[in-house]
Amino acid sequence: MESLLATRLLGRAANWANELWDTLDSTNERAGELARAGAREGVIVMARHQTGGRGRGGRTWISPEGAGLYISFILRPALPPAELPLMSLAAGVAAARAIKLTTGADDIALKWVNDLVAGGKKVGGILCEMPSMPQGQAAGQLSLEQPPLILGIGINLRLDLQLLPAELQDRVDWLERIAGAEVDDNQLAAALAAQVESVYGDLKNGLRSKLVQDWKALSVNLGRAVRATTGDSEIEGTAHDITADGALVIALPGGGFVTVHAGDVMLRNADGSYA
Ligand code: BTN
Question: Is the pTM higher than 0.90?
Fold first, then answer.
């Protein structure tokens, strides 16, 4: 993968090696450990197999050997905290672009907040985490570095559906099936690094509205009937817009709007079910 990198920042941290593991619990967990040990921005951690892959909302990201790309980037963004959620949306845009460049698949879309989907099925996901830091380093007081943000991306490349729980089997898809051709894991990882670096640059250069526009252009949500689950509450309505800070605005059937900052969103199908 490193020989394919066309980046200036990602994968090129001075004095810190990138890591490619056969088996890890979670690339996000390992990247967090490295960040706590002072790893510089740009370090990449990849694994062929995760035994404790993490998804959003405390869920498990099932990560059989060789079945997917499991990759994490250590970032240290000098961005206002309010802008950090945008990094996760930006990563969705980057991943959709990297997939198109590597496989030709141009029907990869984004479902708020950061699911990669094709034909209504999930192909990948993004998990941004801020690892807890030793006391005193949280706000960077004892460190010259910004606090880390771990950007983890999982993309299904080739799945054996038998390895997934029955309830997931008709809700997921994978790139080699969609593209009808083999996908080179390392090429996709390198393309992902380049595209993440590009959107990260946009964010650092203040191009927030461009990123939100790019996200909207790839969105399957806007204009669709949705059900959002956030904390204990469920909201049904029409996905109306994405705010400048990446929240989803839902138009309610009786009038008015609700802005959802975190949670899960399902789209309503023609038969009235949600998926
Ligand atoms: C989601 O729930 O949609 C997010 C899934 C993110 C999975 C990736 S795989 C690489 C990285 N390491 C993890 O443990 N999780 C993320």
Answer: yes
Ligand 1, atom 3, lies closest to the CA of 125
Report pLDDT for 140: 47
- % of the chain at pLDDT higher than 70: 96
Three-state SS annotation for 151-204: EEEEEECCCCHHHCCHHHCCCECCHHHHHCCCCCHHHHHHHHHHHHHHHHHHHH
Distance of alpha carbon 30 from alpha carbon 43, whole angstroms: 11
Tell me, using a 6 A CB cutoff, whether residue 28 lines ligand 1.
yes
**Structure-token pair, residue 25:** 């619990």
Q: Is 124 in the pocket of ligand 1 (CB under 6 A)?
A: no
- Which residues touch 204 (CB under 8 Å, ≥6 apart)? 77, 78, 79
Q: What are phi and psi of 242, to 5 degrees?
A: -115, 130
Nearest to 238 by CA among 222, 254, 260, 215: 222
Write out pLDDT tens, residues 235-264.
999 999 999 999 999 999 999 999 999 889
